[in-house]
Every structure is written in structure tokens, then in C-alpha cells.
Amino acid sequence: MKHTLLLTVVSTALLFTTHANAQIPGVSKVTKALPKVDLGVKLGANFQQLSGNLSKQYNGGVVGGIFVGLHKNRMGVQAEALIKTVKYDVSGTITNARTNSVNTIALDVPVLFEYKLFWHIWAQAGPQFTSLLSAKNGSKDVKSDLNTTDFAGVIGLEAHLPMKLNIGVRYIYGFVDINKESATGISDAMRNRTIQAYLGFRFL
Fold first, then answer.
1. Phi then psi for 177, rounded to 5 degrees?
2. Ordered DSSP codes for 158-202
3. Which pLDDT belongs to residue 4?
4. Cα(35)–Cα(169) distance, integer angstroms
5. Cα–Cα distance list, 48 to 75, 88, 115, 171, 185 (Å)
6. Interval 167-197: pLDDT, tens
7. Is the Cβ–Cβ distance between 103 and 87 less than 8 Å?
8. Run of H or E residues at 18
9. Strand (E) or helix (H) holding 121
10. Rounded to whole angstroms, how far apart are CA atoms 132 and 143?
């Protein structure tokens, strides 16, 4: 009997609250005026080239992290915090290299402006700040041989799919020469060129 009475009271309160909100002038308008918030995680593949590298190839790694975005109608903005890995081929490049490759871990923080093109397809563009967290040539730490901060431009396409899934691809063009000539022994500029493809999941 107590459970039945409690259920009746709760149901009545919920119905009254819903009805009251519907009757309050401006509540529905304010709700519709607010931007949609996206919060989620993403994981994908990172293909990166270092200009000045003799092989000129894109080396593979992984990228993953979190994103938060605000969208209203056809416009939006999205910020991300991503950890990425890449193995650079440095054969014949860094004079004091112990092996032919340097394994790196870096933090990417892109801030992207978005525009809905059609269906669920959004174009993305904006700046990205990168901080080098680790760089090792074999067991040797060579982080001090490279400039540890990079600034880049990002362009890409992202699809917002059902089941709260995102898929996307982007190209990242680094503007900063990360080569320290005094440490590497070469004068060529080294700038990052990156292609990323990823799958994301939105919690909101």
C-alpha cells in the first residue's frame, strides 16, 4: 500500500513538473536557443611525416583522447586533447643516432571551427598546439635534440552518425621547424605533416 501511494505521488509530481515547465513562458524557447553540447572519446590512426627526412614516407602510429564541442544549427566549435605516437625514420639524418628510428609521444590540442555541409557531414578547420612529451632513439632520450612545441593548421571532415558515433579524417600542416641544428648536425628544416583517421563515441 505504501509503495503504491509513493508511486502515485512521484508520478503525479513528474506530470505536474512537465506540465508546469510547458506552461512557463519562454522556457521552451530558452531550451531551443541553447547550443548542443558534445562530449566524447576518440581513437584512430596517426600517419606522420617529418620534412627533411630522407625517406619522405608517412610513418604510422596511434592517436586517442577526448573532445568537447558546442553546436548550434550549422555552426560549431570543438576542442580536443589527444595523445599520439609516431616512429620517425632518421636514417642518415641525426648524426648521433643509435638506431634508424626515433619513437615519439606528443600531446595535440586542436581547437576547430565546424560548419555543417550536408546530411551529417561537418567541415573542420582551425589551429593546433602540440607539445612533445617523449622522444627516444633506442634507449637514448633525444627529446632535447628537438624543439618540443609545434603549431599547426588543421583541416578535415567529420561525420556525426547514429548510435552517437563519429568518424573523421584530417590533415595537419606543421609550421614550426622542430630541428635543432646544433643537436642534430644537419641544416634541413624538419616540419610535421600528418594524416589522421579516427572513430569517436559521444557520451552526450
1. -80, 110
2. EEEETTTEEEEEEEEEE-S--B-HHHHS------EEEEEEEEEEE
3. 52
4. 24
5. 29, 8, 26, 10, 22
6. 999 999 999 998 887 666 666 788 899 999 9
7. yes
8. helix 2-23
9. strand 121-137
10. 8
How many percent of the chain have pLDDT more than 70?
74
C-alpha cell at 175: 609550421
CA distance linking residue 98 with residue 103, whole number of Å: 12
Q: How far apart are CA 80 and CA 154, in angstroms?
A: 12
The model's confidence at residue 128, banded by pLDDT at 50, 70 and 90, is very high
User: What's the predicted TM-score (pTM) here?
Assistant: 0.79
Q: Which three cell numbers stand for residue 136?
A: 627516444
Burial-class residue 174 by CB neighbours within 10 Å (0-12, 13-18, 19+). Answer: buried
Rounded CA separation 187/194 (Å): 22
Distance CA 31, CA 128 (A): 32
Rounded to whole angstroms, the Cα distance separating 44 from 82 reads: 10
**Dihedral pair phi/psi, residue 180, rounded to 5°:** -100, 100
pLDDT digits (tens, 9 = 90+) for 138-154: 888 888 888 899 999 99
**pLDDT of 39-81, one tens digit each?**
999 999 999 988 765 556 788 999 999 999 999 989 999 999 9
